[in-house]
Amino acid sequence: MIISLDMSSDTPIYVQLRNQIVTGIGRGELRAGETLPSVRQMARDAGVNTMTVNKTYQILKAEGFIEIDRRKGATVLPAGQAEGRFREKLEAELELLSAEACLKGMEKDEFLGICEAMFASMHPAESEG
């Protein structure tokens, strides 16, 4: 998986890194049980500070996407069920995206079509085995 960060973006680097890793897991580019690069290696590869990568990995761990073992490093976890906190986060983010789409004049069918296409591009079942 190739990480591509936009250093001029308003989105913090650790959030961009987190989002790309989650997307990679969702698309099956990173599979359950696969080990992520060490913090130092990821920082070197991405051209960022190790503290940035460490923060990203800690967020991914808290969100249940990876586990961290001192000996094995960061490992991708199998896809899980949508828990309550995740559902609340999803609803809040979709509410904001829906509001923005409406304000920009997007039709409901177009918005839902984009959502369906994005969801269909994910392959969490393939990442488990």
From TrEMBL:
Keywords: DNA-binding, Transcription, Transcription regulation. It holds the Pfam family GntR. It comes from the Bacteria. The keyword Transcription regulation applies. SUPFAM superfamilies: Winged helix' DNA-binding domain. Residues 11-79 form the HTH gntR-type domain. PANTHER family: GNTR-FAMILY TRANSCRIPTIONAL REGULATOR, HTH-TYPE TRANSCRIPTIONAL REPRESSOR YTRA. This is GntR family transcriptional regulator. It comes from Claveliimonas monacensis.
